[in-house]
Amino acid sequence: MSGRTLTVSQYLGGSDNVKFIEKFPSEQTTFNYNFGANIANYAFELDAQTIVVDTLAYDRITGDPNFTDSNVIGHFANVDIGASNVSARNNAAGTVNITIPSHIYTQASKILPDARTNIPITIFSVAWTDSGQTPNTVQAHRWAIIERYKPGDNALGNVLTSAGFTSLTT
Asked: Distance (Å, rounded) from C-alpha 25 to C-alpha 73?
């Protein structure tokens, strides 16, 4: 793959519905979704899972992450967020707030301040089922969250030594 830069979307599965953000573990972020249709029949499901990549580079011009030489080397167990972080603003208008909670990954986990090796990336999935359709329609998209070190948020150290880390073997 020399000479080819993969986007976050390509690296995480290729679809255009992967959104990329970077944040500190203690940050809680709320996004307003506008479906443009009545969402009274929608049921939401939120899940997250943290993967670990061995290395991460950044494009010097854009600052975007470059996953060309990155390999997923392990993961942590899936976390079921449920629908408690979904707040309908206006069902008829199709607007809802979805909150990515703080500390999804970092309950007892470590992060290195350099953020260039053994980087935890939490994949936060937002899925919705429209039971007003026959058959029911299910759609989803993902947020890829590069976890950043912040003093006081988590232990300083190598994520590979964190409780719950599962190494991938080839």
From this structure: 21
CA angle, 76 then 79 then 85, to 5°: 145
Report the distance separating Cα 152 and Cα 93, nearest Å.
Answer: 40
User: Are 134 and 144 a contacting pair, CB within 8 Å?
Assistant: no
**pLDDT 10s digits, 44-97:** 999 999 999 998 888 888 888 888 888 889 999 999 998 899 999 999 999 999
Q: What is the pLDDT of residues 109-166, one digit of tens each?
A: 788 887 688 999 999 999 999 998 889 889 888 888 998 888 887 788 888 998 889 9
Q: Please say whether the beta carbons of 34 and 95 come within 8 A.
A: yes
Closest to 1 in 3D by CA, of 76, 66, 77, 78: 66
